[in-house]
Write a structure and sequence with these properties.
By secondary structure, the chain is an alpha+beta fold. Helices cover 22% and strands 42% of the residues. The protein has 1 helix and 4 strands, in the order ββββα. It is globular.
Amino acid sequence: MCTMICERAEMEGSARGREGWFPLEMANVSYDHPFNAPWEYGVNIDFVNQSQGVGSRVAVELSPESAKRLADTIIEALKKGEADPQIKVSVL
């Protein structure tokens, strides 16, 4: 059964697709059936720039455990970067 769980977040960054680099506008994060990965459910992340069309998309499918590790690792890297007085942080 599909969960229909999907969250969206505006993004500022870049991603590399088939046509090269493109600016990111949004990430769609779902907890549902992956298209390719072998699990019944996973965390599916689509990094997209809808204004540039379907070629401006990078899809990632993670196991729930891997998604949690990635989220924790991102938070830890941000904490270290924000605590470093030599780094100036730009905020959206």
